[in-house]
Amino acid sequence: MNAQENKKQKKLEERIVYLEKNRRFVQNALEMALSMGDFLESINGKKDVKQILQATEKRIKKIIPFEACVLYRINEEDNSDFIPAVYDPDQFESYVKNEIDFMIDEGFFTWALRERRGITISSKDNTRQFVLHVISTPSRIRGMCVGLLPAKKPVIADYSNALLSIILLNTANALENTQLYKIILNQNLILEKKVAKKTKELILAERKLSHARKMEAIGTLAGGIAHDLNNILSGLVSYPDLLLMDIPEDSPLRESILTIQKSGEKASTIVQDLLTMTRRGVAVTKV
Questions:
Q1: Residues 106, 235 within the same domain
Q2: Which residues is 148 bridged to in the sheet?
Q3: Could you list the residue range(s) of the whole structural domain that residue 38 is in?
Q4: What's the pLDDT tens digit per position in 214-242?
């Protein structure tokens, strides 16, 4: 009976340990899930790609104790090359780069892009374990997360892997929003330049129109004055001829009358030029 009771006691203790681990597992999962709200708020408020990825790397380290973590982003110029944006810590940069080159050559990197979930890959010498997880929205790949698992604990819990997927999905959405923001900002700048150019052209056109209206008003006024002067000058031009018919050729008055007539003719010519200007005709005749 003692051996049987000891066996039952042992099973009971193992059951209690299992339930305790399960309770901690659920509690940790709930705590991490609840913290996602703060994470989303922090990355959605950033407009710089590197700042978003740095915040992502810090959050990943809270759920998975990677010995090294590298976040790659897609080159926005050609949308094909992966550019390392965040290395933590820096001393693993060369090692991780060599391992990534190996994974690319072996097709593991491409496999991770297709999976859209975290996959575990052994290092070149099979001594270490890497986790690769694509950073993507449902429509577009935005980058890649590469994590080096600790040598003493080369596995991660299922809930940690699930939370990693959630974090990277939200990161991809934030990166996409940042790109859309840049596109909208660029379009706004282009639109502002066009509006400024059109506004300048409109102001210039309004000034020209205002000047034309002023010139039209001046022309109308000058035309009226010219007509009145022309009526007055007609007597100075025509009456001297009548006077000269009655004055003898040797009369000293003839020279004065001719001077009056010539002055009237000059004044009449100026008036005609003024009328020509009001009708937007040829240039003024030199008198």
A1: no
A2: 68, 130
A3: 16-188
A4: 888 877 887 788 777 777 777 777 777 77
